[in-house]
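Hey, I'm writing a tutorial for new members on how sequence and structure tokens pair up, and I'd like a real worked example in the thread rather than a made-up one. If someone can provide the structure for the chain below, I'll link this post from the tutorial.
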Amino acid sequence: MTDSFSGGCACGAIRYRSTGPARYMGNCHCRHCQQATGGAYFPAVLVKQSDFTIETGEPSWFDRPADRGHAMRRGFCATCGSPLFLINGAGEGAIVIYAGSLDDPSWYTPSRDIFVKSAQPWDVMDPALPKSQAMPG
């Protein structure tokens, strides 16, 4: 894993950088994340907000309440539609980056699968990863 990394949207309008290491990496299979990614799950990289900087561009935001009622604020590029990051209202001081938006996503190493109760039957999960039916905690 790297201590500093960058990423951005498909068209290059938005670029970001994290100067600190990932604090958590995991796959979220909740229905909201499926809709936000258009896929089976959200490969999530959590970093401290104080380590995170948007270097260029301005994301658009979509707010939606999570199952527990707190705000889930998803940032994306309004030009190309790329999902980039989210701010989970329950996780103060953190920002969660979509692993697919990393310049080098090859170092993404998930530690678990969460919300597997919502996983699609066609989603093939890594059997070696721990599974949580909902948000661990």
